[in-house]
Design goal:
9 helices
Length: 210
């Protein structure tokens, strides 16, 4: 298994274009910048997403290309939100109540079910429901990052862990390793953003303000 993985990684490295390598590198750089709440994280995210639009379109993965176009737009939104915050002030890390996340999860499951039905009926998609769940969850969680909602790290932890398993089954070992690094960075992100949270006495006010 290890030998096969090594061979696949070497082959993937040689077959990867410079544009894809740059896109992956910027996607990787984005996460530690986001952990540090650096505004430049959105610049890295925007350039990476635009490059991935090109990469996936060239590979005829049109839904992935469209998803990255959305991520590029969200990078612009995130940059504006982090720069201007609420009423021109600094945007602080906040928390959402569990009920709000549960409601979001129900919406994601509903959207993924419809999406999976269309994919299963009209395309030869592999794992259409899981793929759809990951896509819609990523859309929602990117919004959470743009709003500096602390629980985004829990969402990413689940999304990235499932992605590691999915990419392994599809023999996308280079991407699997990238998402494995993301899983580790999620743990770091939880720890670092927790330090920026308001005190427990102000949590109720944070919920109401969102």
């Amino acid at each position: 298994m290890i030998r096969e993985l090594s061979v696949q990684l070497v082959g993937a490295w040689h077959d990867t274009s410079g544009v894809e390598l740059l896109a992956a590198a910027l996607a990787l750089v984005y996460v530690p910048l986001a952990i540090g709440q650096r505004l430049s994280c959105w610049i890295a995210a925007f350039v990476s997403s635009v490059l991935y639009v090109w990469v996936f379109f060239a590979a005829r993965l049109y839904m992935e290309s469209l998803l990255n176009a959305f991520f590029a737009a969200m990078a612009v939104y995130g940059f504006w939100q982090w720069q201007h915050g609420k009423g021109g002030g600094e945007l602080h890390v906040t928390r959402w109540p569990v009920a709000r996340h549960a409601l979001a999860l129900l919406g994601i499951v509903a959207a993924a079910a419809v999406n999976a039905f269309v994919l299963a009926r009209f395309t030869p998609a592999a794992n259409p429901f899981i793929d759809s769940m990951l896509a819609w969850s990523s859309v929602f969680t990117t919004y959470l990052v743009a709003r500096k909602v602390y629980e985004n790290w829990y969402w990413w932890l689940v999304i990235d862990s499932v992605s590691v398993c999915l990419y392994f089954t599809r023999h996308l070992y280079l991407t699997m390793l990238l998402y494995g690094v993301y899983v580790l960075l999620c743990v770091v992100g939880m720890r670092e953003w927790r330090r920026s949270l308001p005190s427990a006495t102000t949590h109720a006010g944070s919920y109401a303000a969102e």
